[in-house]
Amino acid sequence: MSSTPRPPDVGPAPGSAASPATGSAYALGLLLVVYVFNHVDRQIMHILIEPVRVDLELSDTQMGALVGAAFAIFYTVAGLPIARIADRGNRRNLISIALAVWSLMTIASGLARGFFSLMLARIGVGIGEAGCTPPAHSLILDYFPAEHRGTAIATYQLGVPIGSLIGLALGGFIADVFGWRMAFFVVGAPGVLLAVITRFTLREPIRGLSDAGADTSLEPLGDVLRFMWSMKSLRHVLIATSLQTLTLAAHGAWHASFLMRVHDMSLTEVGVTLGLVAGVAGGFATFSGGWLGDRLSRRDVRWYLWMPAIGAVASIPFSVIAYTTSGRTLAIVAVALSTLGSNLYAAVGHAVVQSLVKPRMRAVMSAIALFAMNIVGFGVGPQLAGLVSDLLGGAEQIRYALLILTGILLWAAVHYVLSARTYVEDLRAKEA
């Protein structure tokens, strides 16, 4: 196979200002912990769908709105202006404030008395969490040079499976023993303390630290958006990751209900089971996706896009088995195997879009990627699954709603391949 160029923004050598010796490792570790809290507070709602639905007498469609649209719409709307602030100002302060906000709103979720009060609390969580990943991605790319960014972003993205493990397992246990309201209180409170730690221990690096000679000037937002739109590979990868997130968000939101309704599992059993699937299978896939992407890209940089396409397609047969089998064990194993393939995109998708923009565009790029993935993925996926479930009759019919949405992964794979066709050309155009 012929060699293709690495992304042109190669940073300093080891031991320079961007090396772990000056705090990169601590910063990445702390940002990982923050992202774990981000997903604990987000995933807790998934394991609590059934007790909340029964207690507040809500439909699957309403629960889909609470898990998806209520969070995603305000997460995405707040994301772009917050990202613009991150590209201008202090990213550490922004992350610490955002962390305090979403933690307090998670606590407020436990005080809800009906659909609308719970929706307002989840909207607050969404607005707070919008201030996490765009500035975090920008910080990470200043701490690490291009050849290590796939692994660095993958390490940060481990917050998703680790947070899912803790949120699902701990949330299910607490809800079983103390009730669903206490689950919100317990997972929300520690985030306030972490916000203080972040504010006083995370160092704000020099903008563009790991990009020798890169343009670090802040361009007008209109110019930034036109620059991004000009890249075909960027447009296709945003479509691909958004479609894949739609399917995975629907699966993630309703897997607990699926196992409880179809396989008669308790909250604690479901929480531990899905927590381990997300933490072990999801964590392995997320990190190995970034790690393999960095290594395979030394031969051909387009592997950053080919790999998630292969993973998405390979996961589909296991999802079909999971939702159609009558055996509990086989269903759980199939969900885990599906997770291994479908989560390969988690880190490399972000690494690809960030490789295509300049340093002062990174937070905005992250916000746009999250906007697309969340408004399409989390905004549509969970609610669409709930709506289809209700149309099919509810209860055990949730399995067929999830099965129908699995087919969207084929559509996502097509766009990964289309993105790869112009990726090398667009990497060069970035420096023109």
Describe the model.
The chain is mostly helical. It has a single domain, classed as MFS general substrate transporter like domains (Growth Hormone, Chain: A, Up-down Bundle). It is built from 19 helices and no strands. Helix 1 packs antiparallel against helix 6 and helix 14 packs antiparallel against helix 16.
Brief rundown of the structure:
The protein has 432 residues and is mostly helical. The protein has helices spanning 24-47, 49-56, 60-88, 91-109, 115-129, 133-143, 149-157, 159-178, 180-188, 190-201, 221-229, 232-263, 267-296, 303-324, 328-342, 345-355, 362-392, 398-406, 408-430.
Please give the oligomerization state of what you see: single chain
**What's the architecture in CATH terms?**
Up-down Bundle
The radius of gyration computed from the alpha-carbon positions, rounded to a whole number of angstroms, is: 20 Å
Q: How would you characterize the largest beta sheet?
A: none
Structural class: mainly alpha
Number of strands: 0
**If helices are DSSP runs of H or I spanning 4 or more residues, what is the number of helices?**
19
Which CATH C-level class is it? Mainly Alpha
Q: List segments where confidence is low: pLDDT < 50 over at least 5 consecutive residues.
A: 1-22, 211-217
How many structural units, i.e. domains? 1
* Fraction of residues in β-strands: under 5%
Q: How many angstroms does the end-to-end distance come to?
A: 27 Å
Helix coverage percent of residues? over 70%
- CATH superfamily, by name, is MFS general substrate transporter like domains
